[in-house]
Specification:
The longest helix has 13 residues. Strands 5, 6, 7, 8, 9, 12, 13, 14 and 15 form a nine-stranded mixed β-sheet that branches. By secondary structure, the protein is an alpha+beta fold. The protein has six helices and 15 strands.
Length: 304
């Protein structure tokens, strides 16, 4: 069944293109998705169809008849998964850099979820067909540990632990610049960038976000750090380190163009700890740095 969404254009939004206005309504909607809806004729302004370049006027009543999503087939794919722990409730897997965690429209193969579906047939259904078992995510080019729920009881427990901030998540990263102090805490809210819907930024009306960091090693122009997440916002470490002036090396979205010769950001989710959903026992796992990350550190040591 289609969903009806109605939006009234505010004084601040007048003069903006309609696709930009609507993309700001829901962070799950991309501008390309909105433009497709406009082309399909499911978006009206004051009862009339408009083109994608229509400039909104204050008081405009926009109606969107969001079509029911087409079912997507997410198929199991045999993969050589690096599994650190598994029982009837939970899997802990070490994801390589370059792998997407779960399928999305237009990208339904080669993801961690495809591999997990081939590995076991019991993943929690709370997040639906596209994200079975997925409790939290790490970015495509970030490597490291993820916990996956095999049933809804485990899923709810792990999500509640994330909300209560009792999950241990420690990352290793290489950042641009030499951080002078040994430790620090970044407490700055994160929201979607109004100028680039695909990016996040520190902004006043964003969601509460806290990252703790400590320096592990300093080089000539870079610093090796460990970051501990207190909250888990999208791109949190990448956004926070950029915000304090030390963006991640190799980060195509938030870092400088001139950077280390590596594929994607130098970020590894190395330590993950949580209370087992069934037994309550605290479990903690550590995954070593990938070879490319270690090679980069060796290069920096030789160059400093």
């Amino acid at each position: 069944m289609e969903e009806v969404v109605q939006v009234t254009v505010t004084e601040e939004q007048k003069g903006e293109r309609i696709d930009k206005v609507l993309a700001g309504v829901n962070e799950e909607w991309s501008r390309s998705q909105v433009q497709q809806w406009i082309k399909d004729g499911v978006v009206t302004v004051n009862g009339q169809s408009v083109k994608g370049n229509y400039k909104a006027k204050a008081g405009d009543e926009i109606t969107i008849l969001i079509p029911e999503p087409e079912p997507l087939d997410v198929l199991p794919e045999e993969m050589d998964l690096d599994i650190y722990y598994e029982d009837q409730d939970v899997i802990v897997v070490n994801k390589p850099s370059g792998m997407v965690v779960h399928p999305a429209p237009g990208h339904t193969t080669g993801t961690l979820v495809n591999g997990l579906m081939a590995h076991c047939n019991d993943l929690s259904g709370i997040n639906g067909v596209m994200r079975p078992g997925i409790v939290h995510r790490i970015d495509k080019d970030t490597s490291g540990l993820l916990m996956v729920a095999k049933n809804d009881m485990a899923h709810e427990s792990l999500v509640n632990q994330l909300v209560a901030k009792t999950v241990t998540r420690r990352y290793k990263a290489i950042v641009h610049g030499v951080i002078p102090h040994d430790t620090g805490t970044i407490d700055a809210p994160i929201g979607r960038d109004k100028h680039d819907r695909q990016s996040m930024t520190v902004e006043e009306n964003g969601k509460h976000a806290v990252t703790h960091f400590r320096v592990l090693e300093r080089f000539k122009d870079f610093t090796f750090v460990e970051c501990q997440l207190e909250t888990g916002r999208t791109h949190q470490i990448r956004v926070h380190m950029k915000y304090i002036g030390y963006p991640l090396a190799g980060d195509p979205k938030y870092g400088p163009k001139k950077t280390l010769d590596i594929e994607g950001q130098a970020l590894h989710a190395g330590i993950l700890g949580f209370n087992h959903p069934r037994t309550g026992e605290y479990l903690e796992f550590e995954a070593p740095l990938p070879k490319e990350f270690e090679d980069t550190l060796e290069y920096l040591r030789r160059s400093s």
